[in-house]
Design a protein that fits this description.
Alpha-Beta Plaits, D-Maltodextrin-Binding Protein, domain 2, 11 helices
Length: 371
Amino acid sequence: MNKGSIRCLGSSVYLKSHFQMKYSLEVETNNPQNVNRIIPHYIPEAVYFNDKTSVDEERGTITTHTWKLPIHMSSRFSSLMKQLDLEKGNSLSNFSLNAPLLEELFVGLEREMEEKEDNNDCNNNNVLEIPEIDKIKRPGIFNTAVRLARYRIRTYIRNKTYILMAIIVPIGILSFFLPLFKRNLEEQGFTNFESRELSSDLYKNQRWNYDLKHSESIKDTLTRQIFEQELPKRGNSASLDFYSAEEMESIGQSVYQEPYYVSSISGEQVDNYYHFTVYYNDSMPHVLPATFNTLSNVILASNQVNDTIHTSSHPFNYFNMLYVGNLKFYAVLVVSFCISFSLSFFGLNVVSERVMKLLKQLQLNGIANRS
């Protein structure tokens, strides 16, 4: 390049030949005329390059004289060198052949350009502009990752042990367990409850308790007779007991078979409002709504109302989420095992690659592997 323009493109030898650079033959002699007769005999295009001053010529001592030899005549240089070697001690004392330097070419081109600028002969139309290089679009991170993964898979797919243990075995385990978990999950349906009318007849063979001790303000209004009338008979005897809350604490802990206690009721009346305290058996699904239905009918009967309230209870369908949670746990456990199993063999391959690189490095350093 010269002044930002490409003058020529090629190797150093091509550049020297293109710009017709010449070898420098330097000869130490005090008789350059005799040497000048020998050199053109072998290299007709040789040019004598006189860079001596008048002072050097007047001294008459042995000085160095230079001839410029064209590069394309290099095939004849050997014959010339042999002849000059024979002339040592006669016409010359020593000689050397120097190849042209690229620095000389650059200096010459610079000097040529300066001369053209001085003479206004520089023609800008002949300047070759550097062609624009099309921008290469770099692949994105995702495409790079996909390519690396594809190359890695092509490498590992040749390893039969890796294919068996890291791919086939995990897929086989998943193919066996996942359909099994799905089938068990589908078989685990909802538990459906039937709609029932809420009344004390639901627990006709069980026992009830009315705590009169803690019901001083309502026991004269909601009498024991009204309660016994609204509650079903248990055989020939009444199903209503009249224990206090303290007594029920000890009695309730000693009941291990039927008849069980359904609920224990106590209450107070404050400003025409009833405040009830109910202890109920939570092992029976309809106890609490049935108890309040019975209390409502007792209040109606105490006010000389013969009609009764009829309500029904229909609990939501029940699904055993604990069983589903266990299935999910085992499914995650199996999937995690398969993934870790595959990654473990991938890790073995990575370690093996590292070891092989280390062994190759040791071998390059002259250490043999004897293990």
